[in-house]
Amino acid sequence: MPDLIRIPCVLMRGGTSKGPYFIASDLPDETEARDRILISAMGSGNLLEIDGIGGGHPLTSKVAIVSPSRLPGVDVDYLFAQVKVEQRVVDTSPNCGNMLAGVGPFAIEAGLVAARDGVTRVRIFNVNTGRLIEAKVATPGRQVVYDGDVSIDGVPGTAAPVHLAFLGAAGSKTGKLLPTGCPINRIDGIEVSCVDAAMPVVLIRASDLSKTGYETPADFNADPDFMRRLEALRIEAGKLMGIPDAADRVIPKPVLIAPPANGGTLSTRYFMPHSCHTALAITGSVAVATAAVTPGTLAHAIAGDHPLPAKLGLEHPFGRLDVTLDRHPDYAEPAAYVVRTARRLFEGHVLVKASLLASNAAA
């Protein structure tokens, strides 16, 4: 028998992230076996991910797992997996809104959702957070198109838009928009705002950590003392938010905020959490924007009042990401709307060792 297994997958760019998209039935049902496959496929445990298809960076070591949904009124389920680069670890506690941008096109082309002429609406249940997202995908002639005239900061060129609506995003992991019960807490003398909307985040004024908030990701990553202090604040914030094992997880995500420098609403620096994002995570942008319209938070203090519907411009190292917030009849908290793009890059099979499926395979 061959010692390599062929697993169908499609490599896609979703927003400012990239990774393989799988149909869930093509992967093992058992979590440990599935994670062994993903670690091997991506080459996790090596700085370059040289023995896999991962890109050697958290933004290019992501996986989307898609399946038909059993929930009424929902088209597909989407499980996001962050495969760590240098550690042989798979984390499914967060969601990824950039990879989410590719779920609708992938599901349509995989035959999981029937395309309509013009625009196809795909209702997506995010398994990680238990929340619904609606994607609108351009499908003229009942075909997914990727070429278009929409540009997003952090991605060269233009592409067809994918419209995402995050519905009922508040309390994605903790059950509350403000998990600590108040808009501001103090940790080690530093004021923070702990917010959970699509992604649990801890917001910190950059100036309180002796930063401007306009530094480059490389500046932050090259400052080990700052990174250690940020991690300590993140872990303590996690405990306050009901995430006692934050040290072993990638949530909550720390975000430095500052007044806008280029005409936006806020300047942001988003951490993943152990390196600074080169742009801004979509789920993180939903959390920051929601915080900005929540009175009492640090973000609201900088952004000022923004009556709904509101379009907020969040500045990041590569430019700006706009989030529109508006009331929704089915939810107490505002729905968040963003525009992303996606592209199908490669389709075929990823090869992994057959021995990984053995029940006694080493993790």
Which residues sit in consecutive blocks of at least 5 with pLDDT less than 50? Answer: none
Q: How far apart are the termini?
A: 23 Å
**Helical amount among residues, as a percent range?**
10-25%
Shape by Cα distribution: globular
Round the mean pLDDT to the nearest integer and report it. Answer: 95
Given the structure, what is the number of helices? Answer: 7
Instruction: Going across the biggest sheet, name each strand in turn.
Output: 1-2-3-4-6-7-8-16
Strand content: 25-35%
Supply Rg.
20 Å
Main sheet overview: 8 strands, mixed, barrel
Structural class: alpha+beta
User: Helix and strand succession?
Assistant: EEHEEEHHEEEEEEHHEEHHEEE
Task: Work out the number of β strands.
Answer: 16
Q: What do these coordinates show?
A:
The protein is α+β, with helices and mostly antiparallel strands. 17% of the residues lie in helices and 35% in strands. It has an eight-stranded mixed β-barrel. A hairpin with a 2-residue loop joins strand 15 (319-328) and strand 16. The model has no long low-confidence stretch (mean pLDDT 95).
Brief descriptors of the model:
single chain, 363 residues, alpha+beta, 8-stranded mixed barrel, 7 helices, 35% strand
Write the layout of secondary structure elements.
Blueprint: E1 4-14, E2 17-23, H1 31-42, E3 62-68, E4 76-83, E5 90-91, H2 97-100, H3 103-109, E6 118-126, E7 131-139, E8 161-167, E9 185-187, E10 190-196, E11 200-205, H4 217-221, H5 224-240, E12 253-258, E13 266-270, H6 282-292, H7 298-303, E14 310-316, E15 319-328, E16 331-353
Parallel strand pairs: 2-3, 4-6, 11-12, 13-14
Antiparallel strand pairs: 1-2, 1-16, 3-4, 4-5, 6-7, 7-8, 8-16, 9-10, 10-11, 12-13, 14-15, 15-16
